[in-house]
Amino acid sequence: MTQQPISIIGAAVLYERMPSTPRHSYGVTLHASSYRPLLKVLDIDEWTFKRRIAVDGAIGGSGKINPRALLERLLREGLNVQWEHALEKVEEGPSDMSLHLKGGRTLDSSVIIGVDGPHSNTRKSLSPNTPLEVLPFVAFNGKRRVKKALWDSVYAPHMQDSTMIELKRGDVAMNIQVNEKMGDLVSISWVYSRPAHNTSDPLYRPSRPVSGATDIPDEFYEEIGALEDLKQPFREVFDKEKLQMERVLSWLMRTVEVELKELQELAKNGVFFMGDAVHAEPIIGGEGANTAIRDGVSLAECMSTNGVEGIPAWYDAQYPGWEASIRKSEKAIAEIHGDPKSSL
């Protein structure tokens, strides 16, 4: 079986658009069923794995919430990462596929694996008619660094041994999550979400550009200011004046589904996908990080045994699970906001 060079887009393996110190300091929840298959590949035991990436690993803990930056650092050890290589588009050339990078550089590759997320330029180039579906929910997110004294007095009594706590107010869901504990500071993130009220809801902007994520309507702060009798630490976090002084992001709850027959057609040209690039789930209620890890492990096993020729059969085996996971995530986000029967 001949060995073919493989170009991986967006996976911090070959071509990565971010600089060498990306600020992925938010946390992701990893399930044992997802990370345990990685242990053999990484040649690491489970205890060491947890200590390396857990939010409280620096102080001896082994929590389930893990800073994405620490996970990425572990996964890329020993790899040749080409940083700041942002892909603009992919085109079919005379014999190979051509990768056009920002700055004018063009690379030819006979095998491409697109792992560049929901906004995948690989997918947009080769499957332009696959839509990003936006679910009818509004969500806002922010991060904050809390001094240990404040953490100990306001947060710790309510967080106890947990790395995430949640609060419901009608159809509004609020959560606070620990991202990382580091010396005298604790990094936290928060999420405020609810169903869209109607098509004229000022907080629901499904057609906003990616760059519009930091354009926060005044109505959001008014909605936060109207919250009453919040218990700690939610009262501390969801404070109108504090949030107005911080960086807040508007999230869109998106799904992506590339049809199986289209994936099989692209495979004939040496173009393959996995993860959020082809089966994205909403951030709230979804399991995108875990499904992407499972994709990566199983695809690597497939290729090591059968080469790229085995990927079409891998698609056939994986696709029903991808579809089921997206439906599950849509149901989950509805249930989180108190309406499991809502039609999405």
From TrEMBL:
GO terms for molecular function: FAD binding; monooxygenase activity. Residues 68-301 form the FAD-binding domain. Pfam families: FAD_binding_3 (PF01494). The keyword Oxidoreductase applies. Its cofactor is FAD. Keywords: FAD, Flavoprotein, Monooxygenase, Oxidoreductase. The keyword Flavoprotein applies. Coiled coil: none annotated. Transmembrane segments: none annotated. Pathway: Secondary metabolite biosynthesis. Belongs to the paxM FAD-dependent monooxygenase family. This is FAD-binding domain-containing protein. The lineage of its organism: Eukaryota, Fungi, Dikarya, Ascomycota, Pezizomycotina.
